[in-house]
Amino acid sequence: MIEIKNLHANIDGREILKGINLTVNKGEVHAIMGPNGSGKSTLAQVIAGREDYEVTKGEILFNGKNLLELPAENRACEGIFLAFQYPVEIPGVSNTTLLKNALNSIRKYRGEDELDAMEFLSLVKKKMSLVELSEDLLRRSVNEGFSGGEKKRNEIFQMAVLQPKLAILDETDSGLDIDALRIVANGVTKLKSPENATIVVTHYQRLLNYIIPDFVHVLYDGKIIKSGDKSLALELENKGYDWVIEEAAELV
Amino acid sequence: MNSSTELKELFIKQFHSFENTLNGEKELPLHQIRKDAIKKFSALSFPSIKDEEWKYTNINPLLSKRFKPADSIPEIDPEFINKYLFDKKEFVTLVFVNGYFSKEFSESDSLPKGLILETISEAIKKHPELVLTYFSKSASSEKNIFTALNTAFANHGTFIFVEENAIIEKPIQILYVTKADDIFVSPRNFFLVNKNAQVKIIETYAGFGDRSYFTNQVTEFVINDYAVVEHVRIQDEQLHAFHISTLSVALEKSTNFSSYNINFGGSFVRNNVNAKFNGGFAECRLNGLYVTEGSQFVDNHTSIDHAKANCLSSELYKGILNDSSRGVFNGKVFVRQDAQKTNAYQQNKNILLSNDAIVNTKPQLEIFADDVKCSHGATVGQLDKDQLFYLKARGIQEKEAKAILIYAFASDVVHSISILQVRDRLESLLAEKLL
């Protein structure tokens, strides 16, 4: 589904990603772990198309298309969804306005008919139950006055409505208590299908108790230094990151 | 002779011709006020950018124009009028065309109990004592040459008197429509809201035609103890129009006044909004919005005078400026020495949509009391990058995403208007302009 080859990216002239290689296929869940400052969030933002980052080398193919040539909005229309680490508050724009515009923009891009008000409403109502959000959220401004947990649930709710091919969850577990974590993880798990894929970016292993990854990668200093299966996550939880970093250093 | 004195002499000459058309009305007390005003007008000078109050507002384009007083009602397409009116069944409706009251388009025969509504010229005949006690007191001709000019030509406009304890449920809409025919109009409104009364008033200014015109307008409010007033002013003049207005509000004890000053139109617009607390425990909320494009110029000068203690003022003016349009905001808040326990908040926020758009903003607080809570601030910026990226990352195209954010920024100002029809209309007008 997505093929990242030798990806290098800068922000303000500083190189953050130093040659990422990663392939994710349909139906797979990949976890990207690593200590703070290793470039995890940068990778998520670069895939989503944030313009603050400059890609200096490498390529990203998404279902065969060169993703780096597309602006963020068209990447979303192609089926990429980023669940933000820090969802921004947008006073004056209701969740309904956001979702309706997003959904219809994506449908238009794909040559599908736009949904009318009734169809839209029945769709969002169905999806709301998935993350246990109440309907009054629809009228509220996007993320305004939301608690940390509500913001993250709202991200997953949006994902449920937009039904992406590739979802990237950027530190979705940060700031969540155990109940919110369970709700979010259940939502993600229910949205999983053989046709879509998920990249979970996380610092801690605990989210991976709920969203079981097929592959685990350790990102350090802008590179993936180790890959393994779900047992790698547990090992990291027990032993920390130092041993992987040392191991990688020895290989150089 | 420079264009400034030349124009002044023209106006004075026009005043004398106007006087001659008044016949018997010359004997009425209003005419003495007019004559005083033209004297003040001739003693004053037109402001230049050397005047602090006009520093960013060059009136030369106005001074080079020669307008004649409107002297008749032109043909007008009812569709154009209706575009600006709200449901006549639910509103008391007054329409003026070229400054003249139009019975045809108005709907003011059966008035709610407790409401007196007249044109200014009728009011002065029927209720001279009511009008003369206050008229021209709060909007003074002493210092402002445009107020003096308006007062000198004051003949058309609206007089509203709300009796003590009367709660007027039906909002009152007043529409001033002008045909752009190189004329000037001087609408003059005088609203007296008595003790414990409540009223909602919407003033709209619009124009049609290809030429230019000049609206020189004054509205005076006297709001007596415990009264509650909501005032919406929609300025949607035609794009070659000059528009200068003064809204002057005297707030007595425990009153509550909310103003919405919405500006879309005009080539040159200057609004003065002056509110003064004459009694304690009163609240004044000034909301403003200006949406400009092309080479439009819109200037809002507001002042709030906390002359008495325990009052609250809260002011929010927002601007969205496109192309090479220009905006000016100057907001003064005075807190006098005796005005302890004052709360005064003022904000001016602007979004520039093009590199050529300019805004000059100057929030000013002058505080002479020591036990007060005051804040002010001004921002000029572009759209928030993080918000824009968030919307785009959800698949919304850049153009739509920007429009959504601009609309949200603007609609915030009209959000608290309590008259649903008015709020809906403004929201759809904004959507039309911005989405």
How does this model look, in words?
The complex is a heterodimer of chains A (252) and B (435). Chain A has 252 residues and is an alpha/beta fold. Chain A is 37% helix and 28% strand. Chain A contains eight helices and twelve strands. In chain A, helix 2 (72-78) crosses helix 3. The model of chain A has no long low-confidence stretch (mean pLDDT 92). Chain B folds into two domains: 3-279, no CATH class; 383-435, no CATH class. Helix content of chain B is 24%, strand content 38%. Chain B is built from ten helices and 21 strands. Chain B has helices at residues 3-20, 29-43, 60-63, 78-84, 120-126, 128-134, 145-152, 385-392, 398-414, 420-434, and strands at 68-69, 92-97, 100-101, 115-119, 158-162, 172-179, 183-185, 188-193, 198-208, 213-223, 228-236, 242-251, 256-263, 268-277, 283-292, 297-306, 312-321, 326-335, 342-352, 358-367, 372-381. In chain B, the strands form two sheets. In chain B, strands 1, 4, 5, 7, 8, 10, 12, 14, 16, 18 and 20 form an eleven-stranded mixed β-sheet that branches. In chain B, strands 3-2-6-9-11-13-15-17-19-21 form a ten-stranded mixed β-sheet, with helices on one face. In chain B, helix 2 (29-43) runs antiparallel to helix 7 (145-152), helix 5 packs across helix 6 (128-134) and helix 9 packs antiparallel against helix 10. The model of chain B has no long low-confidence stretch (mean pLDDT 93). Chain A binds chain B through residues 48-51, 71-73, 76-77, 81-82, 84, 87-88, 90-93, 97-99, 101-103, 105-106, 109, 141-142, 158, 162, and chain B through 384, 386-387, 389-398, 400-401, 404-405, 407-409, 411-412.
Percentage of residues in helical conformation of chain A: 25-40%
The total strand number of chain B stands at: 21
Distance between the termini of chain B: 49 Å
- Do you know the CATH architecture of chain A? 3-Layer(aba) Sandwich
Q: Got a strand count of chain A?
A: 12
CATH topology of chain A: Rossmann fold
CATH superfamily of chain A: P-loop containing nucleotide triphosphate hydrolases
Which protein chains make the most extensive interface, counting residues with beta carbons within 8 Å of the other chain's beta carbons? Answer: A-B, 31 and 22 residues
Tell me the radius of gyration of chain B: 21 Å
Which descriptor suits the 3D outline of chain A? globular
| Major sheet characteristics of chain A | 6 strands, mixed
Oligomer: heterodimer
